[in-house]
TrEMBL record:
Name of the protein described by the UniProt record: Carboxypeptidase
The EC number(s) this enzyme carries: 3.4.16.-
InterPro entries referenced in this protein's UniProt entry, alphabetically: AB_hydrolase_fold, Peptidase_S10, Ser_caboxypep_his_AS, Ser_caboxypep_ser_AS
Entry's Gene Ontology molecular function annotations: serine-type carboxypeptidase activity
Keywords in alphabetical order: Carboxypeptidase, Glycoprotein, Hydrolase, Protease, Signal
Biological process (GO), any one: proteolysis
Family statement drawn from the similarity comment of this UniProt entry: Belongs to the peptidase S10 family.
UniProt cross-references to PROSITE patterns, sorted A to Z: CARBOXYPEPT_SER_HIS, CARBOXYPEPT_SER_SER
Organism: Parthenolecanium corni
SUPFAM superfamilies: alpha/beta-Hydrolases
Domain of life: Eukaryota
Taxonomic placement: Eukaryota, Metazoa, Ecdysozoa, Arthropoda, Hexapoda
Gene3D superfamilies in the record: alpha/beta hydrolase (3.40.50.1820)
């Protein structure tokens, strides 16, 4: 029997490591790209020196963004927080006040995009910010979260979006480092906006932010226990299409059930899933990440669908319409980024490569701990086939936290009344939500339903 297990180990190890031939084997020494050459855009606005010297009014004045919509003033501030002075690592932020006079009393929503390496400017321009790019140019969005909340968009980790570092050693490779940088940025933000420091904070995000959100929340939770750290009033986690665990199983079964692969392809993909589990259990993290990449690529090649929305083809994938706008010299000058390189999402693999071993690790231990203290919403899209809802539910049903028995026996309810926006189930602090007629980018596909859901979550109405 021992010999059988030993031979199986050898075979699986060989298969597992065979995926390292994919083009990431030279990824860890990444040369820093040179800056673009835009004219009359100014310099990146680093606010940290002003905050440290208590020049708060000056920092707010300098970071003020001239309204991008000529017919409607939208109050916002943008700039950089230095999060690692040794390497001159800086995170870009863009903050929007609630669009009303009572903004100082409104909750703060921190938005984090996934990837890793996708800019939160996607969420701002394509999903729920005050602006959207249409064929007519820049317009006001109907279902902007900033009509109801203060919203803070941060490009992170370093190297994402407009965020930058002066050293190849300035990139992060673990969630601990991710959380440290984000915490540094948040504490500086609350010094810049001290009137918001006691307001409710909700951390929201999408996709791989299912790792970022638990990491920064766990950091906040533990730092709040220590007298020498500022208290941050964290109230909840709002995770959309959240990838929390690089080893989720069940995609092959899911694709077979929706009819886009046959039984032979399902068997081939299940072998990849088994290999993925072996890589993870053996802590071959890089091989695990590349195996999962091969699994997803295999699905697309065999089916032809866009796994971000299985009702669409790859040719119909959402374009980054906002990128040319952000790269206009006039925009760059207004938002204080200067000549900083903009990496939208996987346009520069540097962030991904530095986090390649982290991608297949799990955020579930953080989540299980946090569920005993904060409400956490898992929001899935019906047509999402990369973080497929049935696969997520399987993860949720196996979580170990105080409210788990209540979640498992909770009644599933209709969300949105006659609109039939979707379904939800609530037990303990866990909120499990499916939004109908949406893919991976739920706020993009169903903006009203997502905003209504956010209201219910913030107002503790999901019972």
């Amino acid at each position: 029997m021992f010999l059988i297990y030993f031979l199986a180990f050898i075979v699986n190890t060989k298969i597992c490591w065979s995926y390292l031939v994919l083009p990431f084997d030279d990824s860890f020494q990444v040369p820093l790209p040179g800056p673009p050459n835009f004219k009359d855009v100014g310099e990146p606005l680093i606010l940290t020196p002003y905050i440290k010297s208590n020049q708060i009014s000056k920092a707010r004045e300098l970071s003020s963004v001239e309204s991008l919509l000529n017919d409607k003033p939208i109050v916002s501030n943008s700039g950089y927080f230095t999060v690692d002075e040794k390497y001159n690592s800086n995170l870009f932020f863009w903050f929007f006040r609630k669009n009303s006079s009572d903004w100082q009393k409104a909750p703060l929503i921190l938005w984090l995009q996934g990837g890793p390496g996708c800019s939160s400017m996607y969420g701002l321009f394509e999903e729920h910010g005050p602006f959207e790019i249409t064929e007519d140019g820049l317009n006001e969005r109907n279902y902007s979260w900033a009509n109801h909340y203060n919203v803070l968009y941060i490009d992170q980790p370093v190297g994402t979006g407009f965020s930058f570092t002066n050293s190849s050693d300035g990139y992060v490779s673990t969630q601990t480092e991710v959380a440290h940088h984000l915490y540094e940025a948040l504490t500086q933000f609350f010094r810049l906006y001290s009137e918001l420091k006691n307001n409710a904070l909700y951390i929201a995000g999408e996709s791989y932010a299912g790792r970022f959100i638990p990491s920064i929340s766990y950091k906040i939770h533990n730092s709040n226990k220590l007298a020498y750290y500022p208290t941050i009033n964290l109230k909840g986690l709002f995770m959309i299409s959240a990838s929390t665990n690089g080893g989720e199983n069940g995609l092959a079964k899911f694709y077979f059930q929706i009819g886009v692969i046959d039984s032979q392809t399902r068997t081939e993909l299940e072998i990849l899933e088994q290999t993925l589990q072996f890589c993870i259990s053996s802590k071959f993290w890089t091989a695990a990440t590349l195996t999962r990449s091969a699994l997803l690529q295999g699905i697309q090649l065999k089916s032809g669908i866009d796994f971000y929305d299985f009702t669409k083809t790859l040719a119909a994938r959402i374009s980054d319409k906002y990128v040319p706008f952000l790269n206009e010299s006039s925009t760059r000058k207004k938002i204080h980024v200067g000549n900083a390189i903009f990496s939208s999402c996987h346009s520069d693999k540097t962030v991904y490569k530095h986090l390649i071993e982290d991608i297949s690790t799990s955020a579930l231990p953080y989540i299980e701990d946090l569920l005993d203290h904060y409400p956490i919403a898992f929001v899935g899209g019906q047509y999402d086939a990369v973080v497929a809802y049935p696969v997520v539910v399987n993860v949720l049903e196996n979580l170990n936290f105080t409210g788990a028995p209540y979640y498992k026996t909770a009644k599933r309810r209709i969300l949105g009344g006659e609109n039939l926006d979707g379904y939800y189930k609530s037990g303990g602090n866990l909120k499990d939500i499916l939004i109908r007629n949406a893919g991976h980018m739920v706020p993009h596909d169903q903006p009203r339903a997502t905003l209504d859901l956010l209201h219910k979550f913030v107002n503790d109405e999901l019972w």
